Amino acid sequence: MEKQLVLLSLVALSFCNFAFADEQALQDFCVADPNGPVRVNGLACKNPMLVQANDFLFRGLNMPGNTSNPIGSKVTLVNVAMLPGLNTLGIAMARIDYAPWGLNPPHLHPRATEIFTLIEGSVLVGFVTSNPENRLISKILQKGDVFVFPKGLIHFQQNLGHGHAMAISGLSNQNPGIVTVANAVFKSNPDISSEVLTKAFQVDKHIIDQLQSKF
Ligand SMILES: *[C@@H]1O[C@H](CO)[C@@H](O)[C@H](O)[C@H]1NC(C)=O
Known about the structure:
Layout: H1 2-22, E1 39-40, E2 42-43, E3 73-78, E4 92-98, E5 103-108, E6 114-120, E7 122-128, E8 136-142, E9 146-149, E10 155-159, E11 165-171, E12 179-180, H2 181-186, H3 194-201, H4 205-214
Antiparallel strand pairs: 1-2, 3-4, 4-11, 5-10, 5-12, 6-9, 6-11, 7-8, 7-10
Bound molecules: 2-acetamido-2-deoxy-beta-D-glucopyranose.
Family: Belongs to the germin family.
GO cellular component, one term: apoplast
Pfam families: Cupin_1
């Protein structure tokens, strides 16, 4: 009897996992209701009768981002926070602008694969595979080239030209998330202790202090 129960639970569990892995939508849409009191994995749905075309619209991706900053790049992200109609749909978009030699520094998206299309300029892109290989896979892209950064892997882009560069990316999550490596490690709140960082990076404390002061 006990054996049968265990078997039944296992079968039930495998069906559950299958259902979650499949991520089938159960309705046409679920426009995010940011003021909804219900907490779910994502955002609660607005009453479909109150949904408007504007819930599915974001305007302004024709505007260049302001790249006057130390790294010389600006990401304009259109995720569920900017476009409530994206809720539950598993997709988002970004425009990336680069000043001459500008860098979108090493970062990762915990929840999304990114498909990157270079619209203007010439850009060096790369991502690094997981341990133990940590292989760098990189390419110089020209206008019109499309490159993919697999979900969760550290990647970057650098403008190789004297002119402006611009790219458009699709991301496979309504809320892809961004972890910028240097900021997460050297500018966490509160700081990761210098004992941890000196040992992790095998350098003297003054180098860690210098890195922490930069961010
Ligand atoms: C761009 O950002 C810089 C630095 O924050 C600022 O001084 C400048 O006014 C901004 N330019 C525009 C057009 O918003």
